[in-house]
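Backbones bend. Our protein:
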Amino acid sequence: MKNIGFLSFGHWSPSPQSGTRSASDALLQSIDLAVAAEELGADGAYFRVHHFARQLGSPFPLLAAVGAKTSRIEIGTAVIDMRYENPLYMAEDAGAADLIAGGRLQLGISRGSPEQVIDGWRYFGYAPREGETDADMARANAEMFFELLKGKGFAQPNPSPMFPNPPGLLRLEPHSEGLRDRIWWGAATDATAVWAAKLGMNLQSSTLKFDETGEPLHVQQAKQIRAYREAWKAAGHERTPRVSVSRSIFALVNDMDRAYFGRGGESTDHFGYIEPEKRAVFGRTYAAEPDVLIEQLREDEAIAEADTLLLTVPNQLGVDYNAHVIEAIVKHVAPGLGWR
């Protein structure tokens, strides 16, 4: 069995060719797709967060809305850029959204990806301390956020409060018990995966990672996942961690599928630079008839290692088509691989 969810970047464009022409469209269609995915038997609805972009940028209102409209499906992010976050305010928002969803949030956080603007986090009022990088700042914010989710009191109460206080130091409210076990770190390197394991966060590995060996993405990711699990075991955590990988996978079951994705496309990994002096490996797109797709996916070592697969969806093609993309994998591919 494998958890299967979708991952939407929430792109929108005013272009006549786009089925998602405004921020309103992107948000409302995201909710509709999550509802449809739940009805189809998928396990997760995940959203990417990008600032200063025509994409989804404020996750917690969306997560809360999806939580209110659904009852079973996991609701998550992949990922929230921690360079932009106030950990205390985020802990309150996350707690509230998780309570609305009945404890179904799965929050992916990370340093984030290259931005639309130069050092965009500075506009939000944040800057690394002297001698630190923006990545250091992101990890420090993540550690504080993760610590706050323990729900321990730390703030000295006012001796003459407006409303009565419980005894002792005060914590942030609302607190959602169990949310801390549902925080994931999006790791682009083996080292940050090991760091996340030591802290006790779950692991998300995307459709790209920084190239560390020159091998195909799925091989590097599988090694990353194994290193993560070894570090988790060495840290002595009691629970079993979760691991997800993201993939672009399209089952060609009708003429529309073949028109959109049946021309070969990016059928192999490729290497390039998303940041200066940091070579990355980008994963291939899987697009084939279901029987062929099943055999191709059997060879993906990282998918085999992970318990959760996130399907990246072309959200601008509309809710109905994206629901079809998810349904085709759940019905025509997953059973052949033993995932259902």
